[in-house]
Amino acid sequence: MKLCRFNEGRLGLVEGRGVRDISAALDCLPAYRYPLPPYDVLIANLDRVKAAIPSSPEIPLTAVKLLSPVANPGKIIAAPVNYQKHIDEVKTDVQLHQNNPAHTITIQKAGLFLKATSSLAGPGEGIALRHLDRRNDHEVELALVIGKTANNVKARDALQYVAGYAIGLDITIRGTEDRSFRKSPDSYTILGPWLVTVDEIPDPGNLNLRISVNGEERQNSSTRYMILSVPELIELASSFYTLYPGDIISTGTPEGVSPIVPGDTIVASVEKIGTMEVKVRAQAGIR
Questions:
Q1: Domain assignments of the chain as residue spans, ordered by start
Q2: 49: exposed, middle or buried (Cβ count in 10 Å: 0-12, 13-18, 19+)
Q3: Is the pTM of this model over 0.85?
């Protein structure tokens, strides 16, 4: 099942090249009062929503604006240097490593990092670049969404805690600052085009992923080359944090990261998920 959010926060069921508006299924969600729960209520109640899907007419996907399929993640967790060939390219390019030794060590030593939830956007909202005097790069990644509360989960059990998968774009401003700072501007985390439920992707460790910019292929690899697998990333993350429904884990990018500038068009694909087109522009007020 492919679930999306579109236009003004409508919930959609994607079927082929169309989407059905199933927002009425949200009526089954529990009512909450302040303080609100520390998780995404749609993801936490996904089974209830799936059971309440109404019939509705189909809308062409080309006629809607796709938002992030997760509206309110408690955390966005990202994996640095999780592909060996990406580590290799970073080590040999000063524009990438910026003489920061943290950029060239293994993920086992680097650990994970957090991105601001305010950086999250959908493909239809596009990327608004800041600090145009510095290099801004694209990174295509497999992203997973946690489906139920997880704490100190072992890798062998980890996939039981996944709600589904999406394509992630981890956009970064190159520099010497901490990763979480340079990767957290508004719109620097793109998630989409929809959430593919976990039953459709039994093996997240063997998916092709690619990205092109203005028709030129920049990255083309497979999740089988990840250093830490999806289950191992969940084990690592849950050993430090309690993971809640709607939390996002971006699993790292392969080699081929390269600059983007306003006016570019990015097309990113992950096998069994789909393809999304994302427009790049300058942040309002920046020339």
A1: 2-67, 76-282
A2: buried
A3: yes
Q: Does domain 76-282 have CATH number 1.10.357.10?
A: no
For 167-191, write each residue's pLDDT tens digit: 999 999 999 999 999 999 999 999 9
Dig out the tokens for 251 from the structure.
């699993």
The β-bridge partners of 76 are: 115, 248
Does residue 164 contact residue 147 with C-beta atoms inside 8 Å? Answer: yes
Cα 223 to chain center, whole Å?
14
Residue 5 CA to its chain's centroid (Å): 14
